[in-house]
Structure formats: structure tokens, C-alpha cells
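Quick one: structure for this chain?
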Amino acid sequence: MNADKEKWILLTILSLIWGSSFILIKKSLDHFNPFQVGALRVLIAGIVLMPIAISKYKLFPKKQVKWLILAAFTGSFIPMFLFPIAEKEITSSIAGIVNSMMPIFVIIVGALVWKFETTKQQLIGVFISFTGVCILAFGGDDGAAFKLIPILLLLLATLCYAVSTTTVKSKLMDVSSTVLSAFVFSFVLFIPSLLALSFTGFFSTFSFSKDTMTGLMFVSLLSIFGTGLAMMMNYRLLKVSTPLFASTVTLLMPIVAIIWGILDGETLTILQFVGASIIIAGLIFLRAKPAIKK
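Got it. Here's what it folds into:
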């Protein structure tokens, strides 16, 4: 399969998987607290990918270990906690919409850290989308004060994703996507996620009750598909495209997230709908031309 066709297939599948992650986080929060959801999400992915990591341990990129650690914590650890914390206060639909800011952070991080070129059109697109985020943050029925903090947490998570994406593209492209995912979850993040889960008191209160098993089902789906498999596909997408193209998966994710949210009884206020539309308009504007070059 040629790279151009492959990247669009990967983009579509990732949009469906990650767009569905927000509703799975919401359902998991009915059974576990946000820190348990985040830790379980990483830990289960590490367990599933452990056989690959062990069988390919000789390929571990020792010379690039600092970049591997940076990419792992910013892309596959910190955001896994920030999203559940934020979704305790806002809907899964809004979380999906805010996550669509990722291309903006890819442009900013790429320009400041990796010296990618930034065009005037991209800067205008950033400003348009930032305006939409402000409207979205203050457009809820519960008032601005209760929406600002979770929005900021989501923006921080999205910034982390951008740091990870640009790091992988710049420093880790010689490692296969499957092996890279296995190393991230099974070697780098396994112990931190296990410790984090222990500190939440999960093991001392665990029981084989219906509530716990239902929660584990939702987290397992989130972990296996929305974390392990999705990160493999995302690393592969970075190999056959650019960081900006890979980040545009977040343009399609809100559509999936909103559909799931509506099916689950969520609603958007008129002001939030306007803010979401402005965010997407800004992203489309900054993507109108192929963009980042070293």
C-alpha cells in the first residue's frame, strides 16, 4: 500500500477509535475515580503489549532513551489522568472538541522547539481557534468559573500530545511503531502506572463485584483499543506523514465524540456550539496549505 493511501486509512480509523475514547472515559468514571481510570488505562496497555516488548528487547533505543521517556510521559501518561479529571466537570463531547486544538500546539511546539517554519496563515488559524476555545470555556450552563479549570486541563493534555508527537517524529522514527508502543507502555510506563494505581487504594478496595467488573470492561476497551492499538497506529501515521497531518485526526474526533455524547443524552448550549464551530473553522483555515517544513 502506498504511503498516501495508508495515511488516510490510518487517519480515518484513528478518528473512530479516539473519538470513541471520550465516552469510554465517561463510562469508566461511573465505576472508578479519575486517577484509577488513568492508571488502569496505561497499566492494561502495558500488560497486553508486554510479550512484544520482551521479545524485541534487543531493539530498545538506548541512545534515544531520554526522547523515549519524554514521548512516553507526555503522550501516554500525563494526558491519561488529565482527561478523566476534566470529564468529571464537563461532557465527553466538550472534551473531544477541546482536543481538536492539537494541530495548533503541534505548530507552536514545532516552531519553538524543533524550528519548524510557521506561516502567517497558521498563526491566523491559531488565533481563530483560540477564540473558539474561550467561548467554549465560558459557554456552559453552569457558569464560567466551573468550566475554566477543566478546559485548561484539557489544553494542557493536548499540549502534551503535541510535545510527544513532534518528539517521536524528530527523534524516534527509526523504531518501528509496534515496538515503540510496546516499549512505551511495558518498559517505560508500567512501573509508574502500577505505583499510581497503588496510591489510589485500588488494590485494597478491589472486589469481583458487578460494578467493578463493568468498570474494568470499559477501561479495558479504552486501554486496548484507545491506548495500545491506537498509539501503534498513531506512530505508524507519523512515519508515513507529517506531525501536522497526524494531528488533524483531532478534526474528525469531535464529530465521533459528539455523536456518542448525543446518544448518551448530552447536550451542547448554543454558545458552546458556536465556540466549537469557531475552533474547527480555525483548524480548517490553518490546514488549507500543507505546512510544516524543517
